Every structure is written in C-alpha cells, then in structure tokens.
C-alpha cells in the first residue's frame, strides 16, 4: 500500500506547526509523508532540515493565475489540513484549495473552522460555515474542526492591551468564554488525518474549559505568586489596536462584535465546552492552569508587553 501524503496549510503557524510535530513520528516511521505548504521560499529550509518536504503555495495567486498551478502543487497529495488566513480572503482561499485538492485527487480534507451555532449571525463565523458547506458538496471526505478561543491568545493580550505588568486586559466584561490549547487542536487533527474514514463527515467542537477573565487573572496570580488583576476594556479599543498593528479591519470588526455580544450575553454559545479531545485522542486536554504553568515566564513580568510579536495561530 502506498504511503499517504499529508499536506498542511498553515505550517508556519502555531496549529500547523504543532500538527507537523504530532505527525513527525509517523513520517519518520514511513507511515505517512508530510508536506508543508509555505508562502515564502525562505520558510522552506526550516522544514527541509527536519526531513519535511516544503511546497511553495500561495492561495491568493489562484485569482490571477487560475487553478492549474495550484492543482500541480497539490499533485500526489492524499490528505489536506486546511487552515487559511484570518481575513475576508479566507473564503476564496479555501474554495481554491478545495477545488485544487479535488482536481489533484486528494481523498480527505480536514478543515479548521470555528465553533458557532448553525444560525449564527457573526459574519466571520458564517464565512467558516460557507466554506464547510462548499467542502461538504465537493465529493472529498471532509472533517470539520471547530475550536473556541485559543489559550495561546492570552499572552497577546499583554501586547494588544498595552497595560502595565500584572494587568490582564480584555473586552468581554465578566462573561465566561470557552478556551482550548492549540496543541490539543493539533492532536485531534493528527488522529483524524491518520484515520480518515473513521472521521469522515464528522464535525468536532473543540473547547475544553470555560472561564471568565477575572478567573483567569486570579489563576495567573496563583501560579506566579504575583498580583495580577483583570481590567475590562471597551471592544472598540481592541479594534483600534489590532487595525493599527495591520490586522484586517473587516475581520477584526467581527471579533469586536463577538466581544460585544459575549459581554452582553447575547452570544449564547460563547462558553460551550466539549469532550472531543479526550474522546478522540484518548488523552485529557490541557487545562488553563497547565497552560499558565507551562508559560509561567510570559506572565512573570519577564520583558515588557511591547517586546512580544503577535502571531496568528
């Protein structure tokens, strides 16, 4: 039997990188062949040094060059992990990737979306649902992963919020929201990519623990022994800060709306949690306490918030 080839979009990010790490033992043992999709040639050597093939793929170029170059880049790929950028272009990017994967003969696509109710009116949540609907009609076996808020976003609040050490700023008031470690998302994705038939046609909610920002600030204080506190800020401040850092204003306006509706209680599914990680991987998920303990240095006033660089998951 031929060794299946798995291509990972978003390989240079937190989730894609963790997925490659999770699948690397399978790659080394010859059970799968890993391919990292990169948008810049200078990103390729880091993967090649680990024995992972890197392919230069820019989904935005499909609009000007047509689908054939993308089909060629995906030739020989059996399974695809699809994670696209956090802006309005994600719809066209995802469609191009799905069309090219189908034309190239791929048999499975695992799509990273977002957890939301089926009738959501949050715009960027709806974008993900449109992509899912298109993927379901593609004829390729599909599995949808639907995470909630990433624990890895907590350190970013220190930079975006611009607060002094010991102050955790957020924009949802005292409301609870659901969290997941990006490593747990990657572990679920790895299982699904190893066993495509067992997970075809399924959608997995991925949120493992609900907590409010005051509770998280208290947890950070307990772990570090430092006097952390929570400071609630206005969602409009978040939008201004993120757009100033170069983020897509349309997408970030949607995030602002999520914060507004989480704060006022109208986003009923904001704190939903699931047993998916335990059920699919057989391992307990990483808790918020474990995440803070692992990243104690980040929350121990080591370096100013402005020294940190924002990365998307």
Automatic annotation (TrEMBL):
Coiled-coil ranges per the record? none
- Name of this chain's protein: NmrA family protein
Start and end residues of each NmrA-like domain: 5-241
Gene3D superfamilies named among the record's database cross-references: NAD(P)-binding Rossmann-like Domain (3.40.50.720), UDP-galactose 4-epimerase, domain 1 (3.90.25.10)
Question: Can you tell which superkingdom this protein's organism belongs to?
Answer: Bacteria
Q: Which gene encodes it?
A: nmrA
């Amino acid at each position: 039997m031929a060794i299946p080839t798995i291509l990972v979009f978003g390989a240079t990010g937190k989730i894609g990188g963790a997925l490659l790490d999770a699948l690397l033992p399978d790659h080394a043992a010859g059970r799968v062949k890993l391919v990292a999709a990169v948008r810049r040639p200078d990103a390729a050597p880091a993967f090649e040094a680990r024995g992972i093939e890197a392919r230069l793929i820019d989904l935005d170029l499909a609009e000007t060059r047509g689908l054939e170059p993308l089909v060629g880049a995906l030739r020989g790929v059996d399974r695809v992990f699809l994670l696209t950028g956090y802006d309005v272009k994600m719809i066209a990017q995802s469609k191009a990737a799905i069309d090219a994967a189908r034309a190239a003969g791929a048999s499975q696509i695992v799509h990273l979306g977002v957890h939301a109710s089926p009738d959501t009116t949050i715009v960027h949540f709806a974008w993900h649902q449109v992509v899912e609907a298109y993927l379901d009609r593609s004829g390729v076996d599909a599995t949808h992963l639907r995470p909630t808020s990433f624990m890895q976003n907590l350190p970013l609040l220190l930079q975006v919020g611009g607060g002094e050490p010991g102050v955790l700023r957020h924009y949802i008031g005292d409301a609870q929201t659901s969290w997941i470690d990006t490593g747990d998302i990657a572990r679920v994705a790895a299982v699904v990519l190893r066993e495509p038939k067992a997970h075809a046609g399924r959608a997995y909610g991925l949120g493992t623990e609900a907590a409010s920002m005051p509770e998280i600030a208290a947890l950070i204080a307990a772990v570090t022994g430092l006097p952390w506190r929570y400071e609630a800020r206005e969602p409009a401040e978040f939008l201004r800060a993120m757009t100033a850092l170069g983020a897509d204003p349309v997408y970030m306006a949607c995030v602002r709306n999520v914060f507004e509706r989480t704060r006022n209680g109208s986003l009923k599914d904001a704190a939903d949690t699931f047993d998916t990680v335990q059920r699919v991987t057989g391992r307990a998920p990483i808790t918020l306490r474990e995440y803070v303990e692992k990243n104690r240095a980040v929350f121990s006033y080591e370096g100013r918030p402005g020294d940190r660089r924002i990365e998307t998951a």
